Amino acid sequence: MSGKKISRPFLPSRSTYQSERMKCKWRANVAPLNRILIHESRGFPEPNFSTFNSSQFPFVMQPTPLRRILLGLGVFSLICAIAIIAYIQMGWSVSDAIYMVVITIFGVGYGEVKPVDTPALRTLTIAIIVLGYGAAIYTVGGFIQFLVDGELQSLLRNRKMSQGIASLRAHTIVCGFGRMGVRVAEELQELGQPFVVIDENAARVEEAQQAGMLAMVGNATDEDILMAAGIDHARGLATLLPDDAANAFICVTARDLAEKVEIVSRAENHSAQKKLIRCGANYVVMAATIGAMRVTQLLVRPTASAVLESHGLSHGISEELSAIGLNLEELRLTSSSPLVSKPLAEIQVRGNRGFLIVGVKRGEDPIQMNPSGTLILEVNDIVIVVGHQNDIAELCLAHKVQRQEILYRGVKG
Q1: Which pLDDT band, with edges at 50, 70 and 90, does 148 fall under?
Q2: Are 270 and 286 in contact (CB under 8 A)?
Q3: Which candidate in 142, 281, 309, 348 could, as Cys together with 69 as Cys, close a disulfide (CB 3.0–4.6 Å)?
Q4: Could you say which of 3.40.50.150, 3.30.70.1450, 3.30.470.30, 3.30.465.10 is the CATH number of the domain covering 301-412?
Q5: Residue closest to 269 by CA, chosen among 242, 239, 246
Q6: In terms of pTM, does the model score above 0.85?
Q7: Domain 168-288: CATH class, spelled out
Q8: Per DSSP, what are the bridge partners of residue 327?
Q9: Would you kindly state where each structural domain of the chain is located, as residue ranges?
Q10: What distance in Å separates the CA atoms of residue 215 and residue 76, rounded to the nearest whole number?
Q11: What is the pLDDT of residues 152-210, one digit of tens each?
């Protein structure tokens, strides 16, 4: 074996590695500030601080009013404690030291307990006056800012909100205050139903509170947040997030906390519908499907849609009627119909079942709701009826009226 010395790579020690790591962190935080200072010292134009991002400097804390109050009280207490200890070190008793500090800082003006005739005592007293007054002014300024900025009102409003949420019983929990959540919350508010809104976005929660709704900031997937919203005595929960995975997680968490609560979940993809039901949802709503059905309704039955809108009815009432075997149809009178120039009472169906005439639309005139039986029908009048599908088909054959062609889930009506 040759005597040649083998060179080994240099491996830094643990202390060296930690030191270099701290330097890297220091450079990441301080380097941007150094560049600004050097840039200014060399005579360059002053940088634009309107685009300054304070997140680049995590060590710079913007004092909030509450932080100013706490900091001022802490400094004030520290000054008093140091002053008392200093007087005691100079031969004063504890009670005399406390009394002297109090009358000095608050400027009561009573006589001194002991003569302040040495330079050390006078220096200490002057320092107490200057520092104590400074800390007191700083604290009072924070308190005034606390009142002016409305944080006190915010705290009181949050406390009132918490008390209101805690008093809810048989209520609904609305998870998510987005486009769909806003509409659901507004409908519940109009119906006078108790509910609480949960959203991670503080701005949305503030918007809900300004609208007079009970709302709280939080993640609905967290058990503590659902418990704070009263899931254990809630009647229902609606998870309306645009993320199917998050909705599924909320369903699992809510079902685990309350087995009897009714859960309605929003779904974006058709494949997620069965999964959400397995996760604990009682009902799954496809927003895109409802929108598509609404568009189809407006295209093929505009007059019936106008009737529903004018009376503030749900856009899905046609589907609700279909679920119990009824249809909302538009029947247009043709020139060959025997009903032309006849009163509305002539419309009838032979059999045990019947139908209900909701309204009549004539040209550009407004829809006549609950029309009289003596109304004389004319060509191209549109009669809006609710009835069983077979009865409506029989009506069309008997009176030669034109039935609007309706597609319901791909099947012709």
Answers
A1: low
A2: yes
A3: 142
A4: 3.30.70.1450
A5: 242
A6: no
A7: alpha beta
A8: 387
A9: 65-148, 168-288, 301-412
A10: 38
A11: 666 667 777 788 888 889 999 999 999 899 999 999 999 899 999 999 998 999 899 88
